Fold:
Amino acid sequence: MKSRVIAGAVLLTALAAAPIARADEHPGQKIYREARCTTCHGETGDADTPAGKRLDARKLTSEEVRKMTDAQLGASIAKGRQKMPAFGSALSDGQMQRLVGWIRTLEP
Structure:
């Protein structure tokens, strides 16, 4: 009985500490925030942040990005591009695919 109570307490503690995603949040949006893409590209992908302006970050809503294939966009994330660092060693292939999927939802 005591072990069940302890196990239950551990489970509740773990659930309380786990980050909760909003129900309407795209899975790639969480990755976008956690990988700190917002630092340069901003919450909306418009690169309107101080760092984005200073580094001339690409607007993820631009026609240039919208014309890229998913493979090209994924390669840019994985290998980096110009001043953007590579994320291939920090993100799994699945995470990069979800990130590309979320970028595709951004409105110009």
